[in-house]
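In response to reviewer comment 3 from the previous cycle, which asked for concrete evidence that the modeling workflow produces usable outputs, we include below a single protein chain processed end to end. The sequence was submitted unchanged, and the resulting structure tokens are shown without manual editing.
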Amino acid sequence: MTSRKVSMKATSLLVVLAVILSTFLAVIPASAAARGAWAPNTAYAVNDTVTYNGSTYTCIQAHTSLVGWEPPIVPALWSSSGGGGTNPNPNPNPNPNPSPVTKPGEVPSHIWTYVMNADNAYGKGGDFALLLSAVIKKESSFGAGLPGSPSAGDGLMQVEPNTRNAYLSQFSAKFGHAYNHGSEQDQVYMGALILNEKINRFGSIYNGLLHYNGGDYWYPGATDSYGRPILADQYANQVYAQYKSYGGRS
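The workflow returned the following structure tokens.
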């Protein structure tokens, strides 16, 4: 009889301990996920929180951070929590593979940094960086073809002055500062802005390339004001083939 009472007391004590332990463990994840200030080359898990420039961000996709993947410019990886609350509108379709690509061997490292920064700004997971690299190779040979070019003033992606002027307000809204043509990064950002708009407007990367080169109203057989054919199809064929050779997915 005494043995049974002891057993019942022991069982009751275990139940109480289990309840206390489960309550304690339920609290742990929220504090354990607070990772402090964001840092590059760090592994982050889903629901980890970090601070960056006074704001709090919640990880929405596990990844290892890199320079250029700061939370404000990679919405596929981080949702803004403002002052520490929950973001009411997290990205509903985060890219499942934020950077599956590697730098093509012929692309200079500084150019790759520029295009990856532009890719991150649009959450493209690296594929857009490959396309931008192909465009820059065609337009300026990664900058080597600029000296002596009649369009040297138009930068790495050879955006015509009238065209870029038409996008200045969109550039400021997207990137948070006025366009600086002396910055090669801004030259790439501007080209990326225009090319992304063409792709979205005309429905595919190939069609976007056609109109990036030939203008919104290009059509087969179109000519310029001097009667010369606008060979946007040849341009698109070459750039698209280069992009695919880099491992482009679309």
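Residues 2-32 form the longest helix (31 residues). We consider this sufficient to address the reviewer's concern, and the full set will be provided in the supplementary archive.
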